Give the backbone structure.
Amino acid sequence: MKDIAGRVFRHTGKVRVLGAGGTVQEGRGVIARWKGRQGDPLGVSAHPVGPLEEPLYVFTGSLPQMVPGDSLEQGDGRYTVLHSSRLCLGDTLVCTRAVLEKQEAGNERI
């Protein structure tokens, strides 16, 4: 499979993923707050399991692979990976996407 994600995201911020087994991967990408759907109350995001009080984040970039429970770092921000998938166009890898939860005091890692 051809991988163009590295070229597409080469000018974005560096990220580091810490795996459960102590593995470390590095890549590049952007992290943005998941805003939910139009019409959701301000500060509350809709989710299939119900409204979420804490916002979720979405990573889009170039990384080999992430699994739920991995920790992703970018700058001072630390996030827990809840879901990850790879976006392909035919036989070309375009990017890796992940749904993240921000790690904060009192917010235990999964």
